[in-house]
Amino acid sequence: MLLKAMQALGHWRRPCSSYGFSALSLSSPSLGRGRGSSPSPRFPAFSVRRRHRGSGAVRARATALSGSSPDTAHSATPVGIQTSGIVKKINFCQWCGGPTKHEIPDGEEKMRAICTLCGKIAYQNPKMVVGCLIEHDNKVLLCKRNIEPSNGLWTIPAGYMEIGESAAEGAIRETWEEACAEVEVLSPFAQLDIPRIGQTYVIFLAKLRNPHFSPGPESSDCQLFALDDIPFDSLAFSSILVTLKLYVQDVKNGRPRFHYGTINKRPGSSPSDIRAYTLDYHLQS
């Protein structure tokens, strides 16, 4: 759906913002990677059905998969997707400040914080993280984090999407803030859901508009890495490890794909153990 929505944008552009970088530029309606690119790939069809009402799990089946990888050997079989995650307890109403009670509202299935004064229900929704996987001279641009969590570890430029911007605009902004780099988005590369912590990553392939980059306030270093030199043992998050592994595999296979998957951390694992995960429900265009 994301790729189709961006295809409809065509040659859409907007004026430069105060961040000092050029806004999103889509080079062609097919979102190809420059001249001579192949037509946009079609997404595999899939269906989702609820297994039990209120069970907190659904089953999904992927069809029309075009290839597999070591992470996707079982992608064509039904996969249980857990919908439970970490939910913060809300004790006071964000609208009137009144105390809340925690009940399951009529017609719903999950516990919610309900204000005892104004009656409004506080819904907690996932956060969207957007970023750019930047290609330049057969290398990728990584930033060393200068803030917690994962201070001193490497990541791609990425961060939380802001109100009033598109996912691509947010990815461009984050790249400017973390790497002082002006980029052009080429195509969406991956959507990675992390239900346990309520985050969805949307990663775009991008290229540098010029070869200039430097660490922003949240980075202590920025470097271009050849694929064989990517510091896989010093990456900040499981999502970044998955993204870079998928990208390296695509390069080896000779063409980029669009990836969707769910990252589930292994039970009992430490948040800092970025390899303690499974990539479930992996779909590729």
UniProtKB/TrEMBL annotation:
Pfam families: NUDIX, Zn_ribbon_Nudix. PROSITE patterns: NUDIX (PS51462). GO terms for molecular function: hydrolase activity. It comes from the Eukaryota. The keyword Lipoprotein does not apply. Keywords: Hydrolase. The keyword Hydrolase applies. Residues 125-248 form the Nudix hydrolase domain. SUPFAM superfamilies: Nudix. This is Nudix hydrolase 23, chloroplastic. It comes from Rhodamnia argentea.
